[in-house]
Amino acid sequence: WVQEEAPDVLCLQETKCAASAVPAELRELPGLPHQFWCSAKDRPGYSGVGLLARTQPLDVTYGIGDPEHDVDGRVVTAEFPSLFVVCAYVPNAGRGLVRLEPRLRFNAAFLQFLQRLDARKPVLLCGDLNVAHNEIDLCHPRANRASAGFTPQEREGFSKLLDAGFVDSFRHLYPEARGAFTFWTYLGGARARNVGWRLDYAVVSRRLLGALCDCKIRNAVQGSDHCPITALLAI
């Protein structure tokens, strides 16, 4: 599917894989020779992200400059001539919201990080942001008001991101689209019944809207409890 899609940049989240253990078929993927992997320190099989690019970035950085969160391997950023591409796997607040406070601290630090980038050049943030922003973004909002990914605090964090000059590209283009989900639990045949959540986003700096052509949810692509999304920009 990746070869058919032929992306300029491929962002992967929750890789659970150290750079040294990336499978050969991914290392050798045609058209994406520039590969950058960020994994959790001393926690094999936890978190992790990867960014693969068709052309060599100007610069690549790992983390957000926050020691509490950078050890988890959640963010890799590639600078290109016209924009930054940020690949992020935002922490889950956990069952029973046991990790809600660390998640909120991540939100605050991550927003500051994105604003620092945005002050230099536009940003495209791609990733599993582990939040359904509005009721339209999950199948059963009433039943999940106290669930990780749909708490008022997490939703407010995403609102703050938008208020800071960023745009949810899919919702900007398709404000009324329902049933547009990117995650389905493996339990209970949720995917077949489309009982899902929209947790994966392409968020752009507002000044990139003129370059935004489309944002597509590729919900027919199998292989994970998430599906890919594709952001198309003319830059």
UniProtKB/TrEMBL annotation:
Gene3D superfamilies from the UniProt entry: Endonuclease/exonuclease/phosphatase (3.60.10.10)
UniProt: Mg(2+) binding residues: 14, 128, 130, 225-226
Pfam family, one: Exo_endo_phos
Site feature location: Important for catalytic activity: 200
Site-annotated residues for Interaction with DNA substrate: 226
Subcellular location(s) of the protein: Nucleus; Cytoplasm; Mitochondrion
Record function comment: Initiates repair of AP sites in DNA by catalyzing hydrolytic incision of the phosphodiester backbone immediately adjacent to the damage, generating a single-strand break with 5'-deoxyribose phosphate and 3'-hydroxyl ends.
GO cellular component terms listed in the entry, alphabetical order: mitochondrion; nucleus
Marked site positions, Transition state stabilizer: 130
Name of the protein: DNA repair nuclease/redox regulator APEX1
SUPFAM superfamilies on file: DNase I-like (SSF56219)
Originating gene: Apex1
